[in-house]
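Chapter summary example: a protein plus adenosine-5'-diphosphate.
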Amino acid sequence: MKQKLAVYPGSFDPVTFGHLDILQRGLELFDRVIIAIAYNIEKKGLFTFEERKELIQQSINGNPNVIIDSFDGLLIDYVKKVDATFVIRGLRAMSDFEYEFQMASINRTLNPGMDTLFMMTSKDYFFISARTIKEVAQFRGSVSSFVPAPGEKRLKEIFEGP
Ligand code: ADP
C-alpha cells in the first residue's frame, strides 16, 4: 500500500535527471512528494530559489502529486510542519553514504517519528551531480544528457551569454 506523503529535500541547483529518477521512483511509493529546496548557508548556489523552483516545475509535466517548496533551518522541523513521516534521499557513492548515514542518524535522534528512505541511484545516473554539471557547463561542454532542456538552456545563458 502506498504511503501518503514524503519530503524529498536537496539543493536542486539545478534539478538533474538523477534527481528526477529518484522523484519518479518515490512517486511509486507515496501518493504525494514534496520537493523541498533547502537553503544552505555553506552552499550558496548558482540559481536562485525561484529559478530552481521554475526548472523543477518545467520538468515534472504538471504532475499534481509533486509539490515544490523551500525551507531553511532543520529538516526535522520542516518535516513536522508539513506533517510527513518519511524523507527520501538518493544514494550514489560511498561518499554520499557517509554523510547521509550521519544526517539520517541525527535526524532520527532528534525526531524518532521520522524516517529516511534511501534509494540507490540508477545505473544511468550514478555519476550525475549538480556540481559537476555546472563545471561542465562552465567550460561549455554539453549537459543535455544530465539535465532537462530548460536547465540546459539556463546554464548556457549563464555561462555563454544570452
Ligand atoms: P547534488 O547537489 O549532490 O546533485 P542535492 O543536494 O540537490 O544533490 O541532492 C538531493 C538528493 O538527490 C540527495 O539525496 C542526493 O543524494 C540525490 N541525488 C542527486 N543526484 C543524484 C543521482 N544522480 N542519483 C541519485 N540520487 C541523486
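Key point: Residues 10-12, 16, 18-19, 22, 89-90, 92, 96, 121, 125, 128-131 surround adenosine-5'-diphosphate (CB under 6 Å).
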